[in-house]
Amino acid sequence: MLAKKVTVRLENGLQACPAALFVQSANLFKSHLTLEKDGHVANVKSIMGVMSLAPAYGESFLLRAEGEDEMDALAALASFVENEQMNA
Asked: pTM for this one?
């Protein structure tokens, strides 16, 4: 299992469209992926889970990946969130 603390650099945070693209990206991987913020954990492959935690610009959360492609998944999803412009 790998984990990385990431800080949201998307202007609108992980809301609506960015959250949907984030979840779409997560679903390209086989690994189990979770997001942990303020003691709450969500499945990164669930739009409702991601939006329920609503990570905003400047907030940090822990991204965890466990599975055969965990390194690639963690790198791709961390890059998505830490990038200042949304690149899908």
From this structure: 0.91
